[in-house]
Amino acid sequence: MSERPDRTLRRFLGYDMKRAFAAIQADVTAVLAPHGLRMLTYSVLTVIRDNPGLRQSQLSEILLIERPNLVLILDELEGLDWISRTRARDDRRAYELRVTLKGRRVCDRATAAVADHDTRMADGLTAADRQALHLALNRIESNGRSSHDDADQLSRP
Amino acid sequence: MSERPDRTLRRFLGYDMKRAFAAIQADVTAVLAPHGLRMLTYSVLTVIRDNPGLRQSQLSEILLIERPNLVLILDELEGLDWISRTRARDDRRAYELRVTLKGRRVCDRATAAVADHDTRMADGLTAADRQALHLALNRIESNGRSSHDDADQLSRP
DNA sequence: CAAGATAGTTATGAATAGTAACTAATATGC
DNA sequence: GCATATTAGTTACTATTCATAACTATCTTG
């Protein structure tokens, strides 16, 4: 086997990103586990924390999670009494999501742990490197989104 | 809903990376589909193309795929006659993996398409930006790996 | 008010990933 | 040289995540 057996793939951003993300995911999963959270439940909890009264469909748009998949996650968090679903007064189909006091403590502790993890994963990068990385990732995300939008526009009457 | 409903998560590299990678994945999946490939089958095919005679266990180490999961992927590629499994002469437990002529054509065309896709996803980034991004991603990957290694070293007698 | 749209849910399926246990072949140690 | 352990590949099974269709109950609109 040659010394760089994945040399062709290494030229692609997607490949390096998949591997870097896998490393992050493994680490953050281990960091969150003691808090009783997974990546998915943590991000849901945090977005609700930042946006009290949020509706499930808004949450699903923010985190790009299909509505049906969100239901079970919210059931789990509600079962732990970390969030509450209360019927909206102005629209009785919808729920207003809120983080409970208990959930707030869990969320804040987890956020501190994830911030530590994030710093660790960025070890060896300067603040400027990190900033550039965030910008590049946001750029790629929006490049991806805009290619979808193009297709949508073309297929629209 | 506030104007940046995921502001807390946006400070974390992992979150931006998950979203950027999701964008790449959606795009590359669409790019590969006409070639009859998925991300997984494409990367397997490409690594075999770069390393004729490779063993399944080596491949699984390179691409971080568990050996059992590789079996079905190789079955699929072998069924399409894009790769061949031939018993190794020096070790009759092992297979030597090779890309067939047919597989080579598919692989090379797919690689050209993925290279295009990669350029598109990096639109708005300079060559220096791309280079820095690769470096940062490799750094993060190795930061993740070294935290695993640390644990291994501690638990070693 | 009837028709259509929306919020949440249920049921279900596909893709990926992970573990345990098996077989056949090889390597090791007495 | 042979028993033992290890390795390569496989099978079977499980858990997660993600995606789609269809249902209910409410709301909106013509």
List the helices and strands and how they pair.
Two copies of one chain form a homodimer.
Chain A: H1 7-10, H2 13-32, H3 39-50, H4 56-63, H5 67-79, E1 83-87, E2 95-99, H6 101-121, H7 127-154
Antiparallel strand pairs in A: 1-2
Helix pairs in contact in A: 2-6, 3-5, 3-6
Chain A binds a DNA duplex (30 and 30 nucleotides) through helix 5.
Model description:
The structure is a homodimer of 157-residue chains. The first copy, chain A, is mainly alpha-helical and 157 residues long. Chain A folds into 2 domains: 7-123, Arc Repressor Mutant, subunit A (Orthogonal Bundle); 125-157. Chain A has 7 helices and 2 strands, in the order αααααββαα. Chain A has a two-stranded antiparallel sheet with strand order 1-2. The structure holds a DNA duplex (30 and 30 nucleotides).
The helicity of chain A comes to 55-70%
CATH level-3 fold name of the largest domain in chain A: Arc Repressor Mutant, subunit A
Give the helices and strands of chain A as they follow along the chain. HHHHHEEHH
- The CATH class of the largest domain in chain A is identified as Mainly Alpha
CATH superfamily of the largest domain in chain A: Winged helix-like DNA-binding domain superfamily/Winged helix DNA-binding domain
